[in-house]
């Protein structure tokens, strides 16, 4: 690639700057060649104070989608940076000094992507050195806890000047009341006891509690649970059951009789039958999830040292698919509990901020067709993860703490498994899951950049918005007005074009599987359980309990329900396989309409290739076709590769005469 002349540098810099966001500064750039693709792609590698991006020659970034590019790597997303020159290959850490001019650099993303750029000779070596060192320095200075606040809302300002979020962010009392009305939970109300975050900063300002429980009782009751996260409604089943979630009992507290009665009343939620589910039982811990994800990333790198004949055994050794299998099995069991009888099912986790959200979300996907729509799924994520206080920043390593664990990505993998097994049941596609997967590494909104609703709300109040511009802290709009509008990850049109958003929709979705009304009322096909029955669900079996609260007999009982009693033997069959796992006097129940029971044995759990192997373009062949014409194009490319690789099987003259369209019709 020839060196640009001095006159060309000014126009090139101006062109590059036109694609920057407000407040974004270009630190260095260099012409390069993106490798690993067929054919290789010439362009320009750019490093800014926000991201590293590769701009192909002749490509212009759309002003309508300033953050949309498959070549963008936010600085916080870069896991590893390597420089190569001849036989030398070094890994560059923040603060490292490069001792040679690189011929090629490799940028490994924490989202499994790979950007491989080669630099041509001809007087451009200094630029290659400068852009590489700029990336090293920018990574050292970047901080995921610092919110980027200069996003141009080119589409948001049109019309009234206010941007209405596509998904309710559940930050107002009206949002919670409307959501409760949609679910038809008549025995519940919205509590305002945490409106000032004085009960728990990790809880939302509003949540659902039984109607007959006063806020004064709610405040006292929540004080007996870890982190103040007492029992709250997650979802109301159309048949009458209620799914609750809460933290572990705080065994150091000393409740009086009135508080104990209030705790039991909130757990029962007006039902005579209540089941406590030990969420942490049979599911991986945070350290297990983190270790499995690290092993998976190392295995899926293009330069992995694992031999091809041992790759599958190495994949099994990561245990990632085992954890996906365990989550799906547990969610299936809880779904059976919710639908088999009218009851209160309580998910109890020590911190109530990780596995409870995962299980609650999966249960709703298995039971509610409305949750499988694009709008419904986004609402579930906003309610059960964002508003419920999942510590996104800590789990994705933004605080430097040792509690990093991508639980949310484990959940997305579980959803992908459901999409593969029930392709006609989901309105959203794999491309939407990928967009959501990658959004946790892009610091452009507050959705995944804070640990609690309190932190998110505090940060959003530091930004002002005027019509079309989302301005940084302490800045003023042109007319001095300050409109407090918060962007969310659901504002997809800021990062994706209309064509890309259309790919979020699953072409195989059958709308008849999902009624038009939100959470429609179905006939009550469930019957109440035995009067005053209390159960503990642990190790795949139901064990009767004599009391719900651990303080009745002895204050020294531990705070985790599964430790109250001796653990039953682990069953090799799921609850669904055991004829719904119910005692014989309850009888068997037919499967309710809309319930999905996924498979989780052996090859039924698959590797998400489009996500985890995206750094290997050769593996992605055949995965990108969305239409018949697209499949024909990919088929033609595959035939060309076959012609090059196996000339003895496919003679050259035979391949050149073969019509891809004819071959495609024959393969049908």
From TrEMBL:
GO terms for biological process: phosphatidylinositol dephosphorylation. Residues 170-612 form the Myotubularin phosphatase domain. GO terms for cellular component: cytoplasm; membrane. PROSITE patterns: PPASE_MYOTUBULARIN, PROKAR_LIPOPROTEIN. It comes from the Eukaryota. Belongs to the protein-tyrosine phosphatase family. Non-receptor class myotubularin subfamily. This is Myotubularin-related protein 11. The gene is Mtmr11.
């Amino acid at each position: 690639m020839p060196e640009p002349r001095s006159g060309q540098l000014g126009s090139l810099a101006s062109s590059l700057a036109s694609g920057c966001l407000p407040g974004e500064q270009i630190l260095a750039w260099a012409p390069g060649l993106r490798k690993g693709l067929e054919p290789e792609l010439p362009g320009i590698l750019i490093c800014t104070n926000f991201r590293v991006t590769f701009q192909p020659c002749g490509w212009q970034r759309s002003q309508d989608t300033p953050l949309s590019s498959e070549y963008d790597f936010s600085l916080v997303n870069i896991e590893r940076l390597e420089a190569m020159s001849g036989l030398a290959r070094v890994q560059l850490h923040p603060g490292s000094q490069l001792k040679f001019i690189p011929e090629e650099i490799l940028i490994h993303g924490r989202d499994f992507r790979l950007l491989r750029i080669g630099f041509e000779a001809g007087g451009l070596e200094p630029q290659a050195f400068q852009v590489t060192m700029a990336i090293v320095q920018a990574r050292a200075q970047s901080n995921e806890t610092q919110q980027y606040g200069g996003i141009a809302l080119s589409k948001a300002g049109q019309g009234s000047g206010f941007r209405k979020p596509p998904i309710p962010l559940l930050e107002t009392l009206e949002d919670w009341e409307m959501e409760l009305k949609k679910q038809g939970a008549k025995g519940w109300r919205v509590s305002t006891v945490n409106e000032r975050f004085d009960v728990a900063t990790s809880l939302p300002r509003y949540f659902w509690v039984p109607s007959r429980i006063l806020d004064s009782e709610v405040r006292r009751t929540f004080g007996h649970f870890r982190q103040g996260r007492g029992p709250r409604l997650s979802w109301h089943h159309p048949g009458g059951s209620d799914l609750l979630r809460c933290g572990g009992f705080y065994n150091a507290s000393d409740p009086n009789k009135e508080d104990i009665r209030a705790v039991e009343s909130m757990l029962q939620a007006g039902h005579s039958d209540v089941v406590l589910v030990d969420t942490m039982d049979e599911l991986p811990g945070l350290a297990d999830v983190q270790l499995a994800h690290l092993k998976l990333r190392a295995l899926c790198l293009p330069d992995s040292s694992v031999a091809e004949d041992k790759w599958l055994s190495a994949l099994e050794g990561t245990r990632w698919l085992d954890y996906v299998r365990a989550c799906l099995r547990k969610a299936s069991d809880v779904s059976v509990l919710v639908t088999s009888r009218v009851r209160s099912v309580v998910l109890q986790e020590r911190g109530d901020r990780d596995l409870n959200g995962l299980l609650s979300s999966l249960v709703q996907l298995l039971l509610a067709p409305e949750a499988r729509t694009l709008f419904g799924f986004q609402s579930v994520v906003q309610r059960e993860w964002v508003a419920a206080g999942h510590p996104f920043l800590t789990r994705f390593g933004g605080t430097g703490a040792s509690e990093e664990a991508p639980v949310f990505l484990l959940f997305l993998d579980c959803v992908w498994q459901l999409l593969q097994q029930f392709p006609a049941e989901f309105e959203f596609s794999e491309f939407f899951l990928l967009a959501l997967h990658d959004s946790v590494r892009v610091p452009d909104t507050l959705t995944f950049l804070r640990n609690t609703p309190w932190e998110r709300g505090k940060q959003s109040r530091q930004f002002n918005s005027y019509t079309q511009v989302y301005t940084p802290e302490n800045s003023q709009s042109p007319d001095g007005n300050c409109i407090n509008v918060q962007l969310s990850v659901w504002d997809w049109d800021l990062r994706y074009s209309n064509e890309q958003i259309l790919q979020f929709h699953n072409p195989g979705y059958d709308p008849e599987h999902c009624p038009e009304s939100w959470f429609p009322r179905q006939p009550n096909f469930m019957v109440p359980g035995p009067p005053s029955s209390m159960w503990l669900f642990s190790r795949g079996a139901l064990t009767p309990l004599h009391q719900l609260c651990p303080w009745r007999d002895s204050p020294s009982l531990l705070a985790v329900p599964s430790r109250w009693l001796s653990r039953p033997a682990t069953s090799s069959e799921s609850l669904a396989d055991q004829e719904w796992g119910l005692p014989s006097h309850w009888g068997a129940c037919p499967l309710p309409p809309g319930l999905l029971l996924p498979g989780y044995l052996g090859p039924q759990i698959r590797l998400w290739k489009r996500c985890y192997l995206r750094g290997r373009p050769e593996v992605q062949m055949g995965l990108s076709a969305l239409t018949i014409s697209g499949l024909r194009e990919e088929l033609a490319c595959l035939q060309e590769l076959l012609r090059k690789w196996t000339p003895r099987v496919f003679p050259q003259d035979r391949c050149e005469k073969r019509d891809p369209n004819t071959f495609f019709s024959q393969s049908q």
